């Protein structure tokens, strides 16, 4: 995964085109670097899975 793909996936999640986003362990660092730069960063919630994978959801209300 590169930064362009990560940004597109985050936009799709925000826009409701996909309900959740599964990020594999190998792609996490690139994905997170794109995620933390976004102005709506606090709207994304990541849930860690076994093996280092993460499932992201988009929240209408930002996390505190």
Strand order of the largest sheet: 1-3-2
Low-confidence stretches: none
Average pLDDT, rounded to a whole number, is 96
Q: Can you count the helices?
A: 2
Strand content: 15-25%
- The tally of structural domains comes to 1
Strand and helix layout:
Elements: H1 3-15, E1 21-23, H2 28-35, E2 44-48, E3 54-58
Antiparallel strand pairs: 1-3, 2-3
Helix pairs in contact: 1-2
Summary?
This protein is of the alpha+beta class and 64 residues long.
Comma- or semicolon-separated keywords:
64 residues; 3-stranded antiparallel beta sheet
Descriptive notes:
It is a single chain. The chain is of the alpha+beta class and 64 residues long. It is 33% helix and 20% strand. The chain has helices at 3-15, 28-35; strands at 21-23, 44-48, 54-58. It has a three-stranded antiparallel beta sheet, covered by helices on one side. A hairpin with a 5-residue loop joins strand 2 (44-48) and strand 3.
